[in-house]
Amino acid sequence: MKTGIVLEGGAMRGMFTAGVLDVMMEQDITFDGAVGVSAGAVFGCNYKSRQPGRVIRYNKRYCRDPRYVSIRSLLKTGDLYGENFCYHELPDRLDPFDAAAYRKNPMEFYVVCTDALTGEAVYHRCGRGDARDLQWMRASASMPMVSKLVELEGRLLSDGGTADSIPVRFLEGQGYRRIVAVLTQPKGFSKQPNKLLPLLRVALRNYPALVRALEVRHERYNETLRYLAQREREGSLLVLRPSQALKIGAVERDAEQLERVYQIGRADALAAVSKIHTFLCSAAERSSACTDRETAVSGGPEGA
């Protein structure tokens, strides 16, 4: 039974996801496949390359660097998050991304983008962790109005969260039957219509299908939350979400705030470790490997 993990986006709410994934790496929790959306893609790829600590490290180090994120970058290049710095200089030289380890890890890693001409989701498997894959991750995280569209394989691509913020159905369609979904909003959250829609309609007037997708995004998102609740009740899905509202924006230049959200992710993940192991090694699919893993987590066999 294939296991998978879904990584929601949310810009700097992704520090929560980084904390969760670092704990999973430390606890040797693995999956057969993963799908990341936006920040879930650009941060989640470090889960496949097995680089705990990298996401919080470089975000804290460069959060005040105008090459990383700045209005200056937006005005000069059309990208709030600098494309050359984020997807070339940083992973190649300043805090290297381990593409060799990424390729060696058998876990499949998918990203979600939105086709600007159709408004539909585009799913792409990133198998090498090379420059081309990083461009797909960049496309997944290209927030409308503050990022340029990314042209790949004859498509114009934008932020994946517009078309499919929580792609659980996609993983199910790929044959994954036990799925953990890492969300970046607390329980009870309901997405509201985007307050920037009037501006988005003007800025993206040449892409009416993308605008339409943005107009109905909150409806799709809330419907997906209802679907997640149903799958949780059925026992095929486990949702990890922040225990509190993260209260952090798309851009955060305070390293302490990044660390705060990261630590919430770590704390919530540590509290859920036993639940995650139990879910992945449920009674119906129990194997000796699962039993050994659960014993290690609990500190010994029952009654020891």
From TrEMBL:
Catalytic residues of the enzyme: 38 (nucleophile), 159 (proton acceptor)
Secreted found in the keyword field: no
DGA/G, short sequence motif: residues: 159-161
Keywords for this protein: Hydrolase, Lipid degradation, Lipid metabolism
Gene3D superfamilies for this protein: Cytosolic phospholipase A2 catalytic domain
Protein name per UniProt: Patatin family protein
Lineage start: Bacteria, Bacillati, Bacillota, Clostridia, Eubacteriales
Coiled-coil ranges (or none): none
Motif extent (GXSXG): 36-40
Pfam family, one: Patatin
Organism listed in the record: Neglectibacter timonensis
UniProt KW Acetylation keyword: no
UniProt domain PNPLA: residue ranges: 5-172
Family annotation (InterPro entries): Acyl_Trfase/lysoPLipase, DUF6363, NTE, PNPLA_dom, YjjU-like
